[in-house]
Amino acid sequence: MDEYTLEVPDMTCEGCEIVISGAVTVVPGVGTVDADSSTGRVTIHGDPSAKRRARAAIEKAGYDVRD
Fold first, then answer.
1. Distance between CA 16 and CA 21 in Å, rounded?
2. Neighbours of 1 (CB within 10 A)
3. How many Å apart are CA 64 and CA 45, to the nearest integer?
4. What three-state secondary structure class fits 18?
5. Residue 13, class by beta-carbon neighbours within 10 Å (0-12 exposed, 13-18 middle, 19+ buried)?
6. 35 and 11 in contact (C-beta within 8 Å)?
7. Cα–Cα distance, 50 to 11 (Å, whole number)
8. Which of 2, 18, 28, 41 is most buried, by CB atoms within 10 Å?
9. Which long-range contacts (CB under 8 A, 24 or more apart) does 26-33 make?
10. Would you give the distance in Å from CA 17 to the centre of its chain?
11. Rounded to an integer, what distance in angstroms lies between the CA atom of residue 58 and that of residue 56?
């Protein structure tokens, strides 16, 4: 499994972490998700081909994403 990080600057609280983690965890190819509102970063362990789908899931949940 690879690790990659997405920046989600408008993730500001624990509630945001829960929403984002829930949205990304169900994406095929994603193993584990660590959403950290203090840094505004989501670290994902999984198949690198899932990165685009994980990003889309975060955006669909209402958050902007930066690589």
1. 8
2. 11
3. 20
4. helix
5. exposed
6. yes
7. 21
8. 41
9. 26/57, 27/53, 27/54, 27/57, 28/53, 29/53, 30/54, 31/1
10. 9
11. 5
Query: How far, rounded to the nearest angstrom, does the alpha carbon of residue 61 sit from its chain's CA centroid?
Result: 10
**Side chain identity at residue 11, one-letter code:** M
Return the structure tokens found at 52. 């685009």
Q: Render pLDDT for 3-28 as a digit per residue (tens, 0 to 9).
A: 999 999 999 999 999 999 999 999 99
Distance, in Å, from the CA atom of 57 to the CA atom of 44, rounded to the nearest integer, reads 13
pLDDT in tens, 41-65: 999 999 999 999 999 999 999 999 9
Let me know: does 54 contact 21? Beta carbons within 8 Å. no
The letter for the amino acid at 18 is: I
Which residues pair with residue 3 across a beta bridge? 45
